Amino acid sequence: MTPSDNYEEMIREDSLPGHESRLEPKPEWEPRYPGSGRLAGKIALVTGADSGIGRAVAALFAREGADVAILYLCEHDDAEKTAQIVKAEGRQALTIAGDIGDKAFCDDAVRQVIDRFGRLDILVNNAGEQHPDQDITAITEEQLRRTFQTNIFGMFFLTQAARPHLRRGAAIVNCTSVTMYQGSSELLDYSSTKGAITAFTRSLSENLVKDGIRVNAVAPGPIWTPLNPSGGASEEKLAHFGESTPMGRPGQPNEVAPAFLFLACEDASYMSGQVLHPNGGMIVNG
């Protein structure tokens, strides 16, 4: 059994990342407006694209003209559904299953994208995991390493693999979180990784901007995806999910995807090192 197989087995025991196909009510992923060709002819790689925010991003990118590589851990039915969504928009889809916390997998995934499409224009580092704990002493070493391995190490590994193929005009969009700015009493390890992602985004931007490669991030608030109801949030928090936002509700994936599109396309040609905040009106000064 490979490290990725072990990881998949541990994830299944925790029920994460969760099947969108089993979630009720279903998250809203459908793009809300006709495409305008803002990503015409582009090749995008989106991690965690089988469900939630990743699926909504893949759908919107396809509507705007991009072919999409769909990276995911083990939810094959959800990934196939996303692929069908992309193809229904008249674009090509490539599904690749594996653990982004495994550097060898990231290298191989990018190689598959290049073999299939010949280039890579947009990298969306969206995949992540979270595990609620009320007390810091309850966070096991295994969980701590696993959360960092997926949430931040995976971004490093995938960006390292993609870097030789990214040319002037390419874009990287990372997914951080409102918890990076506000903190979270029961997501200590997850929030810490999101702080690292924001710093990674800003530093990587400084590193790549001279080469014409823009790096930005999106920091969603509470969004209705399989992540929380599949074990990523306590029952108490889930019962009132999103109610603490000024809008009084959780967001939907298709309310977040346009932020990724904006940062990935030429509309954001003068933006790098920045973070957008689709979070229901929470003021975070970030």
From TrEMBL:
It catalyses: 2,5-dichlorocyclohexa-2,5-dien-1,4-diol + NAD(+) = 2,5-dichlorohydroquinone + NADH + H(+). Pfam families: adh_short_C2 (PF13561). Residues 1-34 are annotated as: Disordered. The keyword Electron transport does not apply. Residues 9-31 have a biased composition (Basic and acidic residues). CDD domains: SDR_c1 (cd05355). Gene3D superfamilies: NAD(P)-binding Rossmann-like Domain. InterPro entries: NAD(P)-bd_dom_sf (IPR036291), Sc_DH/Rdtase_CS (IPR020904), SDR_fam (IPR002347). Keywords: Oxidoreductase. GO terms for molecular function: oxidoreductase activity, acting on CH-OH group of donors. Belongs to the short-chain dehydrogenases/reductases (SDR) family. PANTHER family: NADPH-DEPENDENT ALDEHYDE REDUCTASE 1, CHLOROPLASTIC, NADPH-DEPENDENT ALDEHYDE REDUCTASE-LIKE PROTEIN, CHLOROPLASTIC-RELATED. This is Short-chain dehydrogenase.
